[in-house]
Amino acid sequence: IYFQGPFYVQYGAFTVRDNAYRLRDRLMARGYPGTRVTEGDVAGVHFWRVQVGAFPTLDQARAARERFLPESPDCFVIAD
Question: Buried b / exposed e across 18-43, counting CB within 10 Å, b at 16+?
Answer without folding.
Answer: eebeebbeebeeeebeebbbeeeeee
